[in-house]
Design brief:
Layout: H1 14-18, H2 29-43, H3 45-53, H4 65-83, H5 87-90, H6 99-111, H7 114-129, H8 139-151
Helix pairs in contact: 2-3, 3-4, 3-6
Length: about 150
């Protein structure tokens, strides 16, 4: 489940409340990924680009205008990603200094590597092969239960 932070109306303008980053609490990674990707794209093409393409973190604060812009974009994207993580999830990535590194760590931690994915796929295959609708269950109830198991 993705939780939303409650914000007092005096704290932010109406527009910024509408476009608030989703909070990841450790469950439903698929939904959070879609929402945070959309949110980063909303902030600007550079934000999602720096997550996908990566950023070489400089050894000192850049002086070149293009590098300054990339540095700022990376910092803002890190702030957005960090702010969208529950405290315990943030602790896993707080030492990282690029958005790509943070994104990859979250995905690996909660989606898993190839071995984890293979095990999940095998579990889903078994669940699919043993699907049976109970006699007292409605089609809508059966379908809803099936969809919930897929999302988890």
């Amino acid at each position: 489940m993705i939780a939303r932070r409650k914000i007092h109306p005096d704290e932010q303008s109406r527009e910024s409340r509408i476009y608030q980053a989703p909070l990841f609490i450790g469950t439903n990674l698929v939904l959070w990924k879609a929402r945070i990707r959309t949110y980063l794209q909303l902030l600007g093409v550079d934000f999602w680009e720096i997550v996908e393409g990566g950023y070489q973190y400089p050894s000192s604060i850049p002086l070149d205008e293009v590098e300054k812009k990339n540095y700022d974009t990376n910092a803002k994207a890190i702030n957005t990603l960090s702010g969208s993580l529950e405290e315990s999830k943030f602790m896993k990535v707080m030492q990282l200094n690029t958005t790509k590194a943070i994104w990859d760590k979250i995905i690996q931690s909660y989606e898993g590597d190839i071995k984890v994915k293979s095990a999940k796929l095998q579990t889903f295959r078994i669940q699919y092969e043993t699907l049976v609708m109970n006699g007292d269950e409605s089609i809508a109830g059966y379908f809803l239960g099936y969809m919930r198991s897929l999302i988890q």
